[in-house]
Write a structure and sequence with these properties.
three-stranded antiparallel sheet, alpha+beta, elongated, about 35% helix, 7 helices, single chain, about 170 residues
C-alpha cells in the first residue's frame, strides 16, 4: 500500500533526543547464499519483534538498498538505553541472531559484511522538512506537523525546544 502525500511543507514532530541507528549488511560473494541469506532474513524478524512491542523504544524505521550488494535500515529510537536493552536482551531475537553469526563468523565473514553506526541527536541538533511527501523517515517515526509549527527556516526548526527540555 502506498502512503498518500501530505500537501505542502511539513516537519517531524520529534521531541527531545533522537537516537538514530544505521545498520546493514553487504553481500561480498553472491554464491555464498547460505551465508548471507540468514543475515538478510534476520533483520525483518527483529523489526517485527520490535514493532509488536511499543515499549521496546523503536519509534520507526526505513528499509533501504544501497546497491544489489548492500541493504540497510535507518532506525529511530526513543533512547540509547532502550536500544542497548534490546541489543543485549537474552530473550530477544537480536541476541540469538548475533550469537549464531559469531559461531559462523570465520566462514561467513568472507561472504557477508555487517556494519552499524549509532548517532545520539540531542534536541536542537536535528531538523527536517518534507514537501508534498507522505510521512517519511523521522516524521514517519514521530509524527508530522505543519512546518509553521517549528519554523519556516531550518535555523528556526533547529532552535525549537520541547516543553520538557525548557523546564530542565
Amino acid at each position: 500500500m502506498f502512503a498518500k502525500p501530505i500537501a505542502g511543507r511539513t516537519t517531524a514532530a520529534a521531541e527531545g533526543e533522537v537516537v538514530v541507528l544505521l545498520i546493514g549488511m553487504r553481500i561480498n560473494h553472491f554464491w555464498g547464499v547460505h551465508h548471507w541469506l540468514p543475515v538478510l532474513a534476520a533483520m525483518p524478524r527483529m523489526l517485527r519483534e520490535l514493532s509488536r512491542d511499543r515499549s521496546s523504544g523503536l519509534l520507526g524505521y526505513t528499509l533501504l538498498s544501497g546497491s544489489p550488494r548492500t541493504y540497510y535500515v535507518v532506525q529511530y529510537w526513543e533512547s540509547r538505553e532502550k536500544l542497548y536493552a534490546y541489543a543485549s536482551a537474552p530473550d530477544m531475537f537480536h541476541r540469538k541472531a548475533w550469537a549464531a553469526m559469531n559461531r559462523k563468523e570465520k566462514k561467513s565473514r568472507q561472504h557477508v559484511g555487517l556494519w552499524h553506526e549509532t548517532y545520539m541527536a540531542p534536541e536542537g541538533s536535528y531538523e527536517s522538512i518534507y514537501a508534498d511527501m507522505p510521512p517519511y523517515g523521522l516524521a514517519a517515526a514521530t509524527g508530522v506537523l505543519p512546518v509553521e509549527g517549528r519554523g519556516r527556516r531550518a535555523a528556526d526548526r533547529l532552535a525549537h525546544r520541547s516543553s520538557t527540555e525548557r523546564k530542565g
